[in-house]
Amino acid sequence: MKREQVGLDVQASEVKQVNPNPSSVIQFQPLQTAVLLVNLGTPLLPTHREVTRFLKEFLADPCVVDLPKILRWALQLILPFRAKRVVKLYQSIWMKEGSPLKVYSHRLGEGLQGALQETIERYNTEVTVHVAMTYGNPNIIATVNEILNNKIDRLIVLPLFPQYSKATTKPIWNKLCDALKHRLVIPDFHFINEYANNHLYIQALAESIAQFWRERGKSEQLLFSFHGVPVRNLIQGDTYPTTCRALALRVAEELKIPENSYAISFQSRFGLSPWMRPYTDQQLRDWAGLGVKSVDVVSPSFAVDCLETLEELDIGMRHLFLASGGEKYQYIPALNDNQAHIEALKGLIIKFF
Q1: Are 132 and 38 in contact (CB under 8 A)?
Q2: Rounded to an integer, what distance in angstroms lies between the CA atom of residue 292 and that of residue 70?
Q3: Whole-structure pTM over 0.70, yes or no?
Q4: How deeply is 17 buried, as exposed, middle or buried, from its count of CB atoms within 10 A (0-12, 13-18, 19+)?
Q5: What 3-state DSSP class applies to 26?
Q6: Is the pLDDT of residue 104 over 50?
Q7: What are the residues whose beta carbons fall under 8 Å from the beta carbon of 269, sequence distance 6 or more?
Q8: Which of 80, 59, 35 is nearest to 135 (CA)?
Q9: How would you list the strands of the sheet with 125-135, edge to edge?
Q10: Rounded to an integer, what distance in angstroms lies between the CA atom of residue 161 and that of residue 168?
Q11: Confidence band, pLDDT 50/70/90 cuts, at residue 72
């Protein structure tokens, strides 16, 4: 008994020496969280060489151009000719700081970084926000590798596409898989595939439209112009058009506008196959033909302004509507780095803390 008792005493003594105050020794280090915002991408410069380089990568993705491989190869042959026209379009909207899509995406990332700083103590985490592109630079795979090399604990990826689509969100997932599949250690991982049904986002979009009306006046009709997708995507099960219509309805309800004062359309189609209707250009022609003199146009497909909004909608469609008999055309900017937009994205992210 004495020998056992001595053994117990020794063990207790050892424990007491090693850990005299357990509560003062057990300390959890803050989790390292990386948030990655991903947008489509943009040429580095509005030059023929850079635009061709970008389009070559973009149009080679089968998620974007759902055609047999030989036809995608044939498409590459006409790129130099298509690039000539696209260069001029980019030059018409280029900013001093660079491509609008890249400039606004980084501003949004910086705003989100500042907003998330407030959560560090509450959630015992350190957060860094990164921005990458599906095509072009900053390259998504290189950015993910750089993030993971810093041995983070949690990775949250947010594609800057409110509505999931095979042509926009799916390529991001594919590239993430390419970046992660060779990794020995994978951090806690979260992928936000869409957020068009998020109430904070819907409120931010509705308030942006309402604020525009307070400052610039309200037109007869409001057009929700979403980026188009081929009809075959819908046949294959893509939920994108359904989500677009649901979002427009929710925003219209927030704005308390009647059903006959707005419409939904789809823009940016190319190729010969049928795309989702009604087409934006045809909707504007129809309104002008019916005597509608003023329209406001917003494009909730895009988190930030880019070629499709600043050139196609704000310039091209404006000319079309006015040439068709309309008298007033107003483009309502994307949410960009609007504070309400930042708060909505913050709300999506902190759910994983």
Answers
A1: yes
A2: 45
A3: yes
A4: exposed
A5: coil
A6: yes
A7: 228, 275, 279
A8: 59
A9: 125-135, 31-41, 154-159, 188-191
A10: 7
A11: low
Tell me the three state secondary structure of residue 285. helix
* Cα 133 to Cα 172: distance, rounded to the nearest angstrom: 9
What proportion of the chain, given as a percentage, has pLDDT over 90?
Answer: 77
Ramachandran quadrant class, 98 (left: phi over 0; alpha: psi -120 to 50; beta: rest): left
Residue with tokens 């250009």: 281
Write the CB contacts of 242 (distance below 8 Å, at least 6 apart in sequence): none
- Taking the C-alpha atoms of residue 180 and residue 172, their distance in angstroms, rounded to an integer, is 12
Q: What is the pLDDT of residues 45-61, one digit of tens each?
A: 999 999 999 999 998 88
Laid out side by side, the sheet with 294-298 consists of 262-267, 221-227, 294-298, 328-331
**CA pair distance 216, 210, nearest whole angstrom:** 10
- The span from the CA of 110 to the CA of 113, in Å, is 5
Instruction: List, for residues 111-125, the tens digit of each pLDDT value.
Output: 999 999 877 778 888
Identity at 252, one-letter amino acid code: A
Contact 329, 322 (CB under 8 A): yes
Per the structure block, which two tokens stand in for 17? 């020496």
Class in CATH terms, 31-195+339-352: alpha beta
Residue 261 gets which letter from DSSP? G
Rounded distance between C-alpha atoms, residue 286 and residue 292, angstroms: 9
Query: Could you report the per-residue pLDDT of 22-34, keeping only the tens digit for each?
Result: 444 445 577 899 9
Amino acid at 76: Q
State how far the Cα of 188 lies from the Cα of 172, in Å rounded to an integer. 18
Q: Are 118 and 342 in contact (CB under 8 A)?
A: no
Task: Identify the CATH number of the domain defined by range 199-331.
Answer: 3.40.50.1400
Look-up: residue for tokens 């045809």?
282
Tokens of 3: 């020998």
Q: What is the CA radius of gyration of the chain?
A: 25
E strands, the chain, in order: 31-41, 125-135, 154-159, 188-191, 221-227, 262-267, 294-298, 328-331
- Pairwise CA distance, residues 200 & 110, whole Å: 19
CA-to-CA dists, residue 236 to 168, 230, 232, 239, 311, angstroms:
15, 10, 6, 9, 31
Which residues of the chain form CATH 3.40.50.1400?
Answer: 31-195+339-352, 199-331
